[in-house]
# Entry
Amino acid sequence: MTTIGILGAGQLGRMMALAGYPLGLSFRFLDPAAGSPAGQLAPQNTANYTDEAVLEQFARQVDLVTYEFENVPVQAARFLADRVPVFPPPQALEAAQDRIKEKSLFRSLGIATPAFAPIDSPTDFQPALRLTGLPAVLKTRRLGYDGKGQRLVHSAAELGTAAEELGRRDLILEEFVAFERELSILAVRGRALESGLSPQVAFYPLVENHHREGVLRLTLAPAPHLHPGQQEKAESLARAVLERLDYCGVLAIELFERRGELLANEMAPRVHNSGHWTIEGAPTSQFANHLRAGLGWPLGLTSAQGFAAMINLIGSAPPASDILDIPEAHLHLYAKAPRPGRKIGHINLVAPGEAELRQAIGRLRQRLDIPELARYNQTTRMEI
Ligand code: AMP
# Structure
């Protein structure tokens, strides 16, 4: 039996295992935290990612390694890659972990990004501000997620204070983008099925994402009201990244839409929260396709089956019976203890048409106090 080793045992790893069991795969996790969502499904080595003895043992226990979060130390991925196939490739992890490298990669491929500049000392402030203008967003180059490690600044003085708060160096200043909306594209690249052939590549439809306090709350799939050619544009930029990195697996790219133009904000070399709708909303989920890619198996279809909305359950979840009596609803709970701000599950609503999806959202609104759902229903178009 093929055993997939997954670095990280959170909900993404859990959903990957749930997608892999029907394919006859088995799983093993490595995570420093005990009692994790995925540890309930498969054995877990509980240790730090930097413990080489543990990595050595892990490499012997599994046939193939992937990861479910992008802050896995690149060194650990490289150490494993010397012993067992690792996907996505460690160079993708490396690029995604540093916002400057990531945006420079996009730029080198001709992909538009918000203006940005590195900040390592106060002498960088003025040249950076000349590039970005004000307001601007100051972020840590590394280890930021869900809006953490970010400050919006309106003046050079505020930039000074924010830089002090964020640690003075290894920062990036970005132009504040007054975007119309946030979109993301999920791409998947397999392995060459025969030598001489190029790997199979597939794209899910662009989706529209709504964040609050830096955390994803709602995804609409496919994204409503796309401009002509926008899907193709997103696919071609994602393809360029896949090819440059000789990528394998699922890659998510987060985009800002500004006056119809797409600006790349960041990428995640893994399955992604904005792809959870694919579990019931697409013929092949992102989790199944990520595994197929790594195994060198043919990829599955990535089209949308109807219209979907994915709603994150953050901090707490209503009783299951309140959700499950909505026929379009699919409830996914991650077996995590409720805690403020914690993602503990999500709901996928999938309907054959936009009108039916709107109705299902209306019913869900009566049971869940999520402002994004309320705004959705007040408009006549599929827009918030
Ligand atoms: P990030 O960690 O870069 O994905 O940022 C989290 C969220 O902050 C994004 O989803 C946006 O809503 C917002 N954000 C990040 N960067 C910018 C920017 N340069 N301009 C405007 N909003 C931003």
The domain at 181-374 is CATH 3.30.470.20 (D-amino Acid Aminotransferase; Chain A, domain 1). The first helix runs from residue 11 to 20. Residues 121 and 364 are 49 Å apart (CA to CA). The pocket of adenosine monophosphate is lined by residues 114, 137, 144, 147, 174-177, 182, 211, 214, 254, 265-266 (CB under 6 Å).
